[in-house]
Amino acid sequence: MIQIGRLVMKIAGRDAGKYGLIIDVVDKNFVVIDGQVRRRKVNIKHIEPLQKILKITKNASHEEVVSALKQIGIDVEPKKQKQAKKGEKPVKKRTLKITQKQKEVKKEESKVKQDKAKTSSSKKQDKDKKSQG
To answer: Residue 54 is part of which domain span?
Structure first.
Protein backbone atom coordinates (compact mmCIF):
# COMPACT_ATOMS: atom_id res chain seq x y z
CA MET A 1 0.00 0.00 0.00
CA ILE A 2 2.75 2.48 0.94
CA GLN A 3 5.38 2.48 -1.79
CA ILE A 4 7.53 4.87 -3.80
CA GLY A 5 5.52 6.60 -6.53
CA ARG A 6 2.15 6.24 -4.80
CA LEU A 7 -0.09 9.30 -5.21
CA VAL A 8 -1.33 10.55 -1.84
CA MET A 9 -3.46 13.35 -0.48
CA LYS A 10 -2.39 15.15 2.68
CA ILE A 11 -5.24 15.10 5.21
CA ALA A 12 -3.64 16.97 8.14
CA GLY A 13 -1.60 20.12 8.60
CA ARG A 14 -1.31 23.26 6.54
CA ASP A 15 -0.97 21.28 3.30
CA ALA A 16 -4.23 19.38 3.89
CA GLY A 17 -6.16 18.67 0.69
CA LYS A 18 -3.09 18.81 -1.56
CA TYR A 19 -1.56 16.02 -3.60
CA GLY A 20 1.91 14.58 -3.43
CA LEU A 21 3.97 11.55 -4.33
CA ILE A 22 5.79 9.27 -1.94
CA ILE A 23 9.47 9.57 -2.85
CA ASP A 24 10.98 7.61 0.05
CA VAL A 25 9.82 5.24 2.79
CA VAL A 26 11.64 6.08 6.03
CA ASP A 27 10.12 3.36 8.23
CA LYS A 28 6.73 1.80 8.94
CA ASN A 29 5.33 5.10 10.26
CA PHE A 30 6.98 7.79 8.11
CA VAL A 31 7.43 8.59 4.42
CA VAL A 32 8.90 11.51 2.47
CA ILE A 33 6.49 13.20 0.08
CA ASP A 34 6.77 15.98 -2.50
CA GLY A 35 4.47 17.65 -5.02
CA GLN A 36 1.86 20.30 -4.24
CA VAL A 37 2.94 19.89 -0.63
CA ARG A 38 6.26 20.88 0.89
CA ARG A 39 8.94 18.20 0.51
CA ARG A 40 9.13 16.66 3.95
CA LYS A 41 8.86 13.62 6.15
CA VAL A 42 5.26 12.95 7.17
CA ASN A 43 3.47 10.45 9.35
CA ILE A 44 1.46 7.94 7.28
CA LYS A 45 -1.52 8.74 9.51
CA HIS A 46 -1.54 12.21 7.95
CA ILE A 47 -1.85 11.05 4.33
CA GLU A 48 -4.50 9.21 2.35
CA PRO A 49 -3.05 6.81 -0.28
CA LEU A 50 -4.84 6.94 -3.64
CA GLN A 51 -5.09 4.35 -6.44
CA LYS A 52 -2.52 5.84 -8.82
CA ILE A 53 1.12 4.73 -8.78
CA LEU A 54 3.59 6.68 -10.91
CA LYS A 55 7.04 5.52 -11.96
CA ILE A 56 9.62 7.68 -10.22
CA THR A 57 12.97 6.88 -8.67
CA LYS A 58 13.71 6.90 -4.96
CA ASN A 59 14.49 10.45 -3.76
CA ALA A 60 13.46 11.92 -7.13
CA SER A 61 14.08 15.63 -7.60
CA HIS A 62 11.24 18.13 -7.32
CA GLU A 63 11.31 18.67 -11.09
CA GLU A 64 10.81 14.94 -11.72
CA VAL A 65 7.87 14.86 -9.31
CA VAL A 66 6.29 17.93 -10.94
CA SER A 67 6.59 16.44 -14.43
CA ALA A 68 5.08 13.13 -13.25
CA LEU A 69 2.14 14.94 -11.64
CA LYS A 70 1.58 17.03 -14.79
CA GLN A 71 1.21 13.83 -16.81
CA ILE A 72 -1.84 12.86 -14.74
CA GLY A 73 -3.27 16.41 -14.76
CA ILE A 74 -2.20 17.77 -11.38
CA ASP A 75 -0.66 21.25 -11.55
CA VAL A 76 2.03 22.25 -9.07
CA GLU A 77 2.74 25.90 -8.32
CA PRO A 78 6.42 26.83 -8.60
CA LYS A 79 8.17 27.10 -5.26
CA LYS A 80 9.29 30.55 -4.13
CA GLN A 81 13.00 31.17 -3.86
CA LYS A 82 14.33 32.47 -0.57
CA GLN A 83 15.67 36.00 -0.87
CA ALA A 84 19.33 36.51 -0.13
CA LYS A 85 20.21 38.86 2.68
CA LYS A 86 21.23 42.27 1.42
CA GLY A 87 23.47 43.31 4.27
CA GLU A 88 22.82 44.26 7.83
CA LYS A 89 19.39 44.96 9.25
CA PRO A 90 18.53 48.64 9.58
CA VAL A 91 18.72 50.07 13.07
CA LYS A 92 15.39 51.26 14.42
CA LYS A 93 15.05 55.02 14.87
CA ARG A 94 13.67 54.47 18.34
CA THR A 95 16.90 52.78 19.37
CA LEU A 96 18.90 55.72 18.01
CA LYS A 97 16.85 58.20 20.03
CA ILE A 98 17.44 56.21 23.20
CA THR A 99 21.18 56.11 22.63
CA GLN A 100 21.28 59.84 21.90
CA LYS A 101 19.40 60.52 25.12
CA GLN A 102 21.79 58.29 26.98
CA LYS A 103 24.72 60.26 25.55
CA GLU A 104 23.14 63.52 26.65
CA VAL A 105 22.58 62.17 30.16
CA LYS A 106 26.21 61.04 30.35
CA LYS A 107 27.38 64.51 29.26
CA GLU A 108 25.23 66.13 31.95
CA GLU A 109 26.56 63.70 34.57
CA SER A 110 30.15 64.48 33.59
CA LYS A 111 29.43 68.22 33.81
CA VAL A 112 27.97 67.74 37.29
CA LYS A 113 31.06 65.79 38.35
CA GLN A 114 33.32 68.53 36.99
CA ASP A 115 31.33 71.18 38.84
CA LYS A 116 31.60 69.18 42.06
CA ALA A 117 35.33 68.79 41.54
CA LYS A 118 35.70 72.57 40.97
CA THR A 119 33.70 73.42 44.05
CA SER A 120 35.58 70.93 46.21
CA SER A 121 38.95 72.27 44.96
CA SER A 122 37.85 75.87 45.64
CA LYS A 123 36.79 74.86 49.17
CA LYS A 124 40.22 73.29 49.74
CA GLN A 125 41.88 76.50 48.55
CA ASP A 126 39.72 78.56 50.93
CA LYS A 127 40.68 76.25 53.81
CA ASP A 128 44.36 76.55 52.89
CA LYS A 129 44.13 80.34 52.81
CA LYS A 130 42.40 80.41 56.19
CA SER A 131 44.97 78.07 57.73
CA GLN A 132 47.82 80.18 56.29
CA GLY A 133 46.31 83.47 57.14
So the answer is: 6-71
